[in-house]
Amino acid sequence: LAKTTQPISMDSYEGQEVNITCSHNNIATNDYITWYQQFPSQGPRFIIQGYKTKVTNEVASLFIPADRKSSTLSLPRVSLSDTAVYYCLVVYQGGKLIFGQGTELSVKP
Amino acid sequence: DADVTQTPRNRITKTGKRIMLECSQTKGHDRMYWYRQDPGLGLRLIYYSFDVKDINKGEISDGYSVSRQAQAKFSLSLESAIPNQTALYFCATSGEASGGRTGELFFGEGSRLTVL
User: Fold this and answer.
1) Most exposed residue of A23, A109, B26, B116, measured as fewest CB within 10 angstroms of its CB?
2) Which of B29, B31, B66 shows the shortest CA–CA distance to B50?
3) CB contact under 8 A, B33 and A92
């Protein structure tokens, strides 16, 4: 199973772009990369998923280099409400979904 | 109504007691999961099930058991609760994406268990 490694915490200010990088050195050919957001006392919520290159939706972008050993979640112009824990998750065909420790993002005014 | 419902939301119990946490879903998904969350440790997988007849151990299954009573119901039991099982427990469901891959996970609101 691909193990993920993320920074434990990050700080930012409102209006800035935030990039959170996740490393997954032993990702397999058919694995996908997924990011989740979690607020205190709530279950995680899906943000974005990708396989390679770049994926963008209404809330974030996901950049995956050609070797796929890492991925970067990009949050444009963060606000205070983006303060949360962000999890990188490698999804493979086996179904045993293992979360990492997550990155605690703190957005300050 | 929530798509994934967990009961109870909060429970305080004593060491040695048997506890059951229940999860039901209206998503129509086949795949269901139980996770445990502790401060600083992220989410750890306890058990998961791909259908009614399929049960699989996760990272930390010791001290826990599960029952998949129906497609929509997946229960987690602590046969004899101990204090280090004090945690926030999450149930999640997902469908199957292309190539047999697990689709997006949908989580319940969590069940906070305290074992004294």
Assistant:
1) A109
2) B31
3) no
